[in-house]
Amino acid sequence: MKIGILTISDRGAQGEYEDRSGPLIAQIIAEKTAWAVTHQAIVPDEQDQIAATLIQWCDAGVNLILTSGGTGFAPRDVTPEATKQVIEREAPGIAEALRAESLKITRHAMLSRAVAGLRGQTLIINLPGSPKAVRENLDVLLPVLPHALELAAGAPGTEAQHRAV
Predict the structure, then answer these.
(1) Which domains occur in the chain, in start order?
(2) DSSP assignment of 99-121
(3) pTM for the predicted model, two decimal places
């Protein structure tokens, strides 16, 4: 599996802020899966630039793109809009599950506008920008991702094959 990690942060893209969420995602992927992070970048909160990067990575055959940041209520939080611009099919159950589990930890989870969906065979999932929230969301996601990615690739996976993750 080829994985892309896209951090959305104005300050991070300008080098004014150290991205901690992107490297954490990469670390968790390395520790808990056999997948390779093949694409990783930081872009500013610019809808067109986010969308262009997502499209480029999808066209390059990335299987899973995890974004971090830009999913809240701030005026420059446009990650969900950029994601909706490029996906062909939404996967609302993923975003709903992440919000539902996060609500057990903090009421602020209801402020998330994160989305998930498919462009071709690439699954794109918006994650929060907070390292703590990233870890919590990945704990929810990782058990279902092998099956989801297999299905997105057109393979007839079975639930039982993926319970060990």
Answers:
(1) 2-162 (3.40.980.10)
(2) HHHHHTT-GGGGG----EEEETT
(3) 0.93
